[in-house]
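sry for the spam today, last one i promise. struct tokens for design, 260 residues
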């Protein structure tokens, strides 16, 4: 069971994760925060669950996590600026990758658009969702599934999933891992808010496939031509060069990147 007291004792942020809702079981922490009333909503509120029964991933996929072994949580944010939300998702993924590197000394990388990989396997996935009231953003929900102490995975994902335990060969205290992560996320949230280009550079430095030729799937259609992947620009658009060295940009919603 997640130790809320140990978490609050170790937390070193100014606002992110100060408010915590812990549940032993929930269908999905993202769904929980999306449904929470506006009156109960606080910027930086974190909901964490030990047993998520209907975890949701990208592209309608299901997210499985062994109960009480991992960090399965969502954060509600009420940003003062609208747009570039996938850059924030990548910034939080960057925070996870840096933490994995700090703990293990092994290189961790970002896979477009919202996964963290180490030793060629996925260690974390993020799912960002928005709630609007009319035209106005009501909240942003960033859900994170971070494999921490899980030892075995379902056969269908065993070849593609990993955990901190697999990398370190020992268990980590989840409360401490979460606090370490939130400090990094809070830092990158600040950079994201002020549109600091150093954040974009860091993200590009960790994105798998940058500098390589990739195949692009645009609005569900695979393009014939290969493009050189340059990462994201300051607006958060994906930047590529074609074989004639002409630059093209694509919005996040349009695109999937296939590393060849
Ligand atoms: C993906 O890899 O496709 C994204 C996975 C996101 C999973 C997290 S776990 C906490 C939060 N609640 C959910 O239902 N999903 C996210």
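last one done:
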């Amino acid at each position: 069971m997640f130790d809320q007291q140990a978490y609050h004792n170790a937390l070193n942020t100014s606002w992110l994760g100060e408010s915590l809702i812990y549940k032993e079981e929930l269908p999905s922490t993202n769904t929980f925060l999306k449904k929470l009333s506006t009156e109960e909503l606080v910027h930086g509120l974190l909901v964490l669950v030990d047993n998520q029964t209907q975890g949701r991933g990208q592209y309608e996929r299901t997210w499985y996590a062994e109960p009480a072994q991992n960090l399965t949580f969502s954060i509600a944010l009420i940003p003062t600026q609208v747009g570039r939300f996938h850059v924030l998702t990548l910034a939080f993924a960057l925070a996870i990758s840096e933490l994995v590197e700090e703990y293990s000394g092994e290189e961790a990388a970002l896979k477009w658009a919202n996964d963290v990989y180490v030793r060629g396997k996925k260690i974390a996935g993020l799912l960002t969702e928005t709630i609007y009231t009319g035209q106005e953003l009501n909240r942003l929900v960033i859900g994170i599934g971070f494999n921490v102490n899980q030892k075995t995975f379902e056969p269908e994902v065993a070849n593609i999933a990993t955990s901190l335990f697999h990398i370190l060969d020992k268990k980590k205290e989840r409360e401490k891992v979460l606090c370490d992560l939130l400090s990094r996320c809070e830092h990158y949230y600040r950079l994201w808010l002020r549109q600091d280009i150093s954040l974009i550079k860091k993200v590009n430095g960790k994105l798998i496939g940058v500098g390589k030729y990739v195949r692009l799937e645009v609005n569900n259609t695979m393009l014939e031509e290969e493009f050189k992947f340059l990462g994201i620009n300051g607006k958060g658009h994906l930047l590529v060069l074609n074989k004639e060295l002409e630059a093209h940009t694509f919005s996040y919603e349009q695109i999937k990147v296939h590393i060849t």
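The first helix runs from residue 4 to 10. ok im logging off now
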